[in-house]
Every structure is written in C-alpha cells, then in structure tokens.
Amino acid sequence: MSIYLGNFSIARMEERLGIKFPDELVAYMKDKHQDNAGTLAKDKWHCFDIPFVLACENREMAAIIYDHLKPFTDDMKDQLGISIQGKNKCAVHDEIDGRKRMDEQDSKKAMKEAL
C-alpha cells in the first residue's frame, strides 16, 4: 500500500527544486492543476510532497513536462518523479534528476508499456 501526501503548486515545485520553470511550461500547467489527489480529470496534474512525484493524467502531458524540465536536471536540488495516472493509478514512474535518469528510449518504452 502506497501513501502519497501533499499538494504542491508550480511555485512550491520550483522552490523545492531550486529552479524556475520556463514561462511556456508555467503557461501550459497553470490551468491544469488539480487540488484533489483522487483520480485525475482529463488533462490535469497533481504534485505530491511525499514522495515528491508529479502525477499526470496522460502520457502526452508527462512527456511535455519532462521535456521542458530535462535541461535543468543538473541544477535541481531534489529529484522529482513524474508518473502517468491512468485507470491503474500511477502506471510509470520516471525519475528526473542529475543522479538518476532513464535514457530517452527507455523512457518512451516504459510509457508505451504503461498504457
């Protein structure tokens, strides 16, 4: 049984990671935040504090966020997991940080297998 706690905003994620998200990513994410951590509505995301995981409703959203954050991995103070939440809750968990990264092929393969 997994327990996830917290509800981070974009500003809280930036603060914890020690980076500023690109403006286009903030614009993309700002109206898609879901406060309730239950099943995510279409095109919504929720970021947990413990563990520090950004749950996305679909693969496309996870890939867009991942692609925007990947260039900042070496500057991040903490690691952020990105998961795709579908019918089976968190289907794939891809760590983004300077210490542990899946390469692009493995990441795409894992996302395909999750769906």
Q: Your description of this structure?
A:
- Helix content is 32%, strand content 20%.
- It has 115 residues and is of the alpha+beta class.
- It has a 4-stranded mixed beta sheet with strand order 1-2-3-4, with helices on one face.
- 21% of the residues are buried.
Radius of gyration: 13 Å
Helix content: 25-40%
Give the overall silhouette.
globular
The major pleated sheet works out as:
4 strands, mixed
Q: Average the pLDDT over all residues and give the rounded result.
A: 83
Contiguous low-pLDDT stretches (5 residues minimum) are 87-94, 97-105
Write the H/E string, N to C: HHEEHEEH
Number of strands: 4
Number of helices: 4
State the secondary-structure class: alpha+beta
Task: Note the topology.
Blueprint: H1 10-17, H2 23-29, E1 45-48, E2 53-56, H3 59-69, E3 80-86, E4 89-96, H4 104-114
Parallel strand pairs: 2-3
Antiparallel strand pairs: 1-2, 3-4
Quick rundown:
The protein has 115 residues and is an alpha+beta fold. The protein has helices at residues 10-17, 23-29, 59-69, 104-114; strands at residues 45-48, 53-56, 80-86, 89-96.
